[in-house]
Amino acid sequence: MITNDMKVTDVVKAYPRAVEIFNDFHIDYCCGGKDRLEDAVEELGIDPKSFIELLNKKLVKEGSHTENREVLEVGRLSEMEVPELIDYIVDTHHTKERKLLAEIDGLINKVLLAHYEHHQEQLVSLHGLFSDLRKELQEHFAKEEKLTFPYMKKTYLGGGSPAYVKELEDEHEAAGSIIKEIEVCTNDFTAPEDGCASYHLTFQKLHELVKDVYIHIFTENALLFQKYEGGIQ
After folding, report:
1. What are the pLDDT digits (tens) for 10-44?
2. Rounded to 5, what percent of the chain is helix, strand, coil?
3. What is the pTM of this model?
């Protein structure tokens, strides 16, 4: 049973399909995962009682009728030890997001040129925000792969530094803030009616990237970092 006192991240751990509903209602389950469910919902102007009733109906009573492999990974990831979980994050999320960043970069520049006359305001803003997000993520990946993750693998059974976790959490917050601006800028990834196929594809790829980044950050904040800090004596 889901209650208003549960943390957002704990709802996802217990009911991974909650991610689908949280995405629809723009509830932050990655960077804001430590918030109480009631507080997170109220902040968005949603009635907590009605929303929690919806969650219990869809996730507890009805159960999982549809399988989303990306979301349902949460249960398996919870059983992984720190080194295995780190490898999974790099092989899955870093790889996918690097590919999407490269694809989107080319698409945005193409669409900016083609639709500058009629959609200058949106596209110039989006171009800047995406550039900021790409820089943030690429530098974050490099830091994790070359410095932080190797250190965590060596020290997760004791003697590690929680400061490393705090640094990564701060970087997650920075990426999350940019993503929220992108969501507003793109009207929740809704391309204009006169947008060409590339315009629609750009927004589709951006949405795919954002959903993966959310799962990525959740996996680190709620699973990896908790396991790592739990091993530090």
Report:
1. 888 888 888 888 888 888 888 777 889 998 889 88
2. 75, 0, 25
3. 0.84
